[in-house]
Amino acid sequence: MTDLVTTSPEDGPAGKPTSVSRTTLSHIMTAADTNLLGTVHGGVIMKLVDDAAGAVAGRHSGGPAVTASMDEMAFLEPVRVGDLVHVKAQVNWTGRSSMEVGVRVLAERWNESTPAQQVGSAYLVFAAVDEHGKPRPVPPVLPETERDKRRYQEAQIRRTHRLARRRAIKELRERRAAEGLDDA
Known about the structure:
two-stranded parallel sheet; 3 helices; disordered N terminus
């Protein structure tokens, strides 16, 4: 068992290793999951991604967590009826009340012994909330492996870009409103 880092109450919750909340959700795709092209609808995959990421965020934070954003949802290959889809998720980074969860989507034929192939990936940001829906502190994530450390560093870069993009859009909207160019 991995030892957890303990902190004093004023420092916030004790840190948790990446492996504590890592999870895999598996689901077999049926005809009910298909789109008009006969492959699995992207929205079905996105829901599985959100479900797995939400479970990880709730485990890591020790309570309710809500989806704040989904970044970089990439569909690499189509998923077909009969595919067994595995959605693997882990916390990559934590802030005061938010967490980035990385998700890999793999698919394999249910009746074949071929290895699962990566068919998608996504990054989601979750906010831990209390019973009133207000943000609550989350434990720091403690990367365990070199891969976990790389994911943590990449998550920090994505966060910096998300915040810069949000700030730039807000400034543009304010500037356009001040010039009377936008009516809403």
